[in-house]
Design brief:
Length: 183
């Protein structure tokens, strides 16, 4: 019960920052699109050519993964008919797509310079996200398999990891947009 209340409280506190971050992402995307269609050259002049060529693939995959995960979370919140199947399918698909996006980032940096973690906050938060992308669906599936008395605890961990994952993805998308728009 105490565990449940604290998760509800955490969710209430995360709700406002998450929506503020999402608005910031939308604003930043529109400013990057504006830059790309206009004076893209000088803004991106310091990024290696391979990164300039490949970042849209990396960004598209992680943003698509993020959107699928957010969509999946809405089913878990509303709990309409068949919500678990949709939540599970979107969770697993979204995680796979986002991990593919992170692998693309690794390939992109290898092809450009072989100097990994050159942009520490984005790269370290990105690696933490990859860990959460593996742990969250695992705990989601695990909660359906463990004994009834341990289910609540595993479910609590799953919810906490899920919210931490979505929040850190939103923040890292913002960091990524800042790299490509101000490098
Ligand atoms: C990365 C993928 C996933 C993310 C980000 C995620 C996230 C979440 C979140 C945030 C909640 C809490 C929703 C709320 O506020 O009430 C939740 C609930 C739940 N998730 Fe996931 N989930 C993922 C994958 C999965 C998978 C693969 C399963 C396996 C079937 C699963 C099973 C569940 C269940 C059963 C609940 C309901 C817990 C309750 O009764 O409130 N999730 N998930
Ligand atoms: C949740 C979303 C994201 C994750 C998990 C993620 C993950 C990563 C990781 C792990 C790296 C470092 C790779 C390495 O050093 O080996 C990286 C690099 C990079 N990412 Fe992302 N990323 C995300 C979103 C974005 C977005 C939305 C953009 C662009 C709009 C972006 C642009 C870049 C760029 C340009 C680099 C190369 C930085 C450099 O070394 O010069 N990322 N990303």
């Amino acid at each position: 019960m105490i565990l449940d209340l604290s998760f509800r409280e955490i969710s209430r506190r995360l709700c406002r920052p998450l929506s503020a971050i999402l608005s910031a992402i939308c604003l930043s995307i529109s400013s990057v699109v504006g830059t790309a269609s206009g004076a893209a050259g000088p803004a991106n002049a310091e990024l290696p050519a391979e990164i300039l060529r490949l970042w849209p693939y990396h960004a598209s995959l992680v943003v698509l993964g993020f959107l699928l995960l957010v969509w999946g979370m809405t089913f878990a919140r509303r709990k309409g008919p068949g919500w678990l199947k949709k939540h599970r399918a979107l969770g697993v698909t979204g995680s796979t797509v986002a991990i593919a996006g992170a692998v693309t980032a690794f390939y992109m940096v290898s092809a450009a310079s072989s100097v990994h973690f050159r942009v520490p906050p984005h790269a370290y938060v990105g690696s933490f996200i990859v860990l959460l992308l593996m742990l969250t669906p695992s705990f989601g599936l695990l909660q359906l398999k463990v004994a009834a008395e341990r289910r609540g605890r595993v479910r609590g961990v799953h919810r906490l990891l899920g919210r931490a994952l979505l929040l850190s993805m939103a923040v890292n998308i913002l960091f990524g947009i800042l790299i490509v728009s101000s490098a």
